[in-house]
Amino acid sequence: MRTHKGAFALIALLLWLFATAASAATPRIGVMTMQPGEIFFERFGHNAIVVDDPDAPAPLSYNFGFFDPGEPGFIGRFVQGDMRYLLAVLPMSEDLTYYREVGRGVSIQWLDLPPAQATALADALALNARPENARYRYDYFTDNCSTRVRDALDRAMGGALRKQLAVRSAGDTFRSESVRLASPASWMWLGFDIGLGPYADRPLSRWEDAFVPMRLAASLREMKNSEGRPLVLAETQLLPHRLPPEPPDAQRRWWPWLIAGLLLAIGLRWLMTHKPRVLGAVALPLWSACGALGLVMAFLWCCTAHIAGWANHNLLLFSPLCLLLLPGAWALLRGRATTRFHQWVRIAIVAGGVLACFLQLPAGAQFQAPWIALLLPIHAALAFPARRA
Question: Is the pTM of this model over 0.70?
């Protein structure tokens, strides 16, 4: 009997030692979030998954945001919307060096994942980081550094993360987030707002909202793990943020644009009757800019894989037809009259602006109210001749 009791005690001790060893070897998983920077491709922030393996000399950062602008064909693929990014793994301390130098804040959320899920995630990331697996086709909104972090976590959690996020909506859109985060750089947010089509204006679920690293971090704070406990076990600031803060949410108003459009239209009508040569000097760059932007939007739609720029209703306001008006602007500049063809082209551009107004009516339409409010009065003012003083 004593022999059996001793055997049972030995077995229990071995099982306890095995369980303790297995628990000790379980890696800690963290999501590291970097605040926006000042360079244009840093405006959206960044993130990475940290694996702190007790058997490894230091925590590792799995970073999906690496690209090489010097590789052959990079510029051509960028223009065509066929960019290639890759997953790189490096010591967390090394990954933090750059952010410390440029003053970008970094925080880490340590996750409460069951041991099996944490181990599976660490193994999957190590496999993904191999050279033959590391590259992926990048998309600004649906397949970027942040969505790769989100998807890796969701796979490890057996789909529990997506289940919690897919049914919620904060009302954000790809356009609203792009314009908000790019707002410190005027040329950048204008480019997003003009160049994005209706694809960018559907309300996003919290799952889709996670293409922004800071949104993903905010969502993780509310999530539960697969066992019902809070997913975020602890959150720590690793580096202070020394740059201007992330732009806040702000409702976009169209009426200031309308006031500006009406005032400019009145000024153009006055020039038409009193200073036709000055009108030509103003119309020439205006029509050149509108026509050139229209050609770019048409190129994005017809000749690239940038799906977010397809079927852009702004083509009705920044019309390529404006390029046909350049000879007439040059004639005005030289004090000569424009042709009847020139006037019909101007009327056609106004008709396109009116059509853009009607395209705003359906639910989920492309948001272009500010541009309609600004440009339609200007196009209308230039469309019809006026009696000169």
Answer: yes
